[in-house]
Amino acid sequence: MLITVAVPTHNRPRLLREALASIAAQTHPEWEVVVVDDGSAPPVLESTLRELLGERFALVRHDQAQGIAGAKNAGVAAARGEVVLHLDDDDLLAPTALAQIAAAYARHPGLQCLFINVEPFGANAPGTADNQSHAVSRLLERAQRTTDHGVAFFDRRLFAALLKSVPMAMQRPAARKTLWDRVGPLRRDSYLPEPEWAMKSALLCEPALLLQHAYLARMDGQNNVSVPAQKARHMLAAVDIRKILLAWIAGNPELAGHAVEVRHSLAGVYFNQAYHHQRSGHCRAAWQPLFASFATHPQWYSLRFALRLLASCISRRKAD
User: Fold this and answer.
1) Cα–Cα distance between 159 and 166 in angstroms, integer?
2) Cis status, amide bond into 42, omega within 30 of 0
3) Is the pTM above the cut of 0.85?
4) 240 vs 191: CA distance, rounded Å
5) Measured in whole angstroms, how far is the alpha carbon of residue 193 from the centre of its chain?
6) C-alpha closest to that of 90 among 64, 115, 125
């Protein structure tokens, strides 16, 4: 089985060499690499890639950076492999990663998507590793059907579980090229394109998870966004994803039965926004998402919270 590893990169030549070296060290013999140079200055050179990979690569260049989603989409489009996965330019693959992926597909010919469990490394890895381990455990409790040769198989409960949380492992798919085409490209204007893709894939097939930590994710403080700002962005992105899912489901009549659970999830995200604003002392900002939550899926707890919010706003106004 030919497996394509698509590597988007932008201005990280040293880390890119490490990522590519981890591919060249794979025990599985059938692989190719598509490097998508997303506007690097200076650009990635073919001679550098040839030194590391021989002739088993293709180089796609973007003169103007298109962002991570656009670069990943270009990698899928150029892939010749039956299975395609992405490797970020600052991450690594364990030496047996591709061999384990190929073995899972060989044992289960009907498999369409195999997510790869993640092992964080670097200065900020310990906390992330604990959080992700708990997140994967909760996901398995909610949606696992069976396990075979180190691969966990899910049932249709997976979509509902992903609406609650998308662990890092479920953002690292090694999927058949045909499924990439069915799900469609990563949305370039999405703040969280990988979780959105995972949810869509769970609607179209029954994915599996390679339990071995075969994808090594670098955690060295690359993200400079503050925690409060990141939380706010994630909540906005969660609303956006669920709206997109509702539109996507509407265009696929066979998926209509999932619309209700998405609306319920959207109402919950709106409510969480309102609660976050109230806890942060922004009473006025809490009203809009609270109204949106009640309009999307009316619940008594929204009315109870509205009374608490009103009391909080009055109290703050008197204090001022």
Assistant:
1) 10
2) yes
3) yes
4) 9
5) 6
6) 125
Are 26 and 32 within 8 A, CB to CB?
Answer: no
Contact residues for 140 (Cβ-Cβ < 8 A; gap 6+): 152, 209
Residue 176 sits at φ, ψ, to 5 deg, of -60, 145
Among residues 117, 78, 81, the alpha carbon closest in space to that of 213 is found at 117
Q: Alpha-carbon distance 64 to 217, whole Å?
A: 26
Sequence-distant (≥ 6) Cβ neighbours of residue 40 within 8 angstroms = 9, 10, 11, 13
d(CA 20, CA 48): 10
Say whether pLDDT at 226 is over 70: no
pLDDT tens digit sequence for 245-256:
999 999 999 999
Given the structure tokens 């396990």, which residue do they identify?
Answer: 147
Specify the 3-state DSSP secondary structure of 61.
strand
Go through the domains of the chain in sequence order and give each one's CATH number. 3-218 (3.90.550.10), 227-319 (1.25.40)
φ/ψ (deg, to 5) at 316? -65, -35
Q: Name the strand (E) or helix (H) holding 84.
A: strand 83-86
What is the Cα–Cα distance from 70 to 87, expressed in whole angstroms? Answer: 14
Element (H, E) at 60: strand 57-62
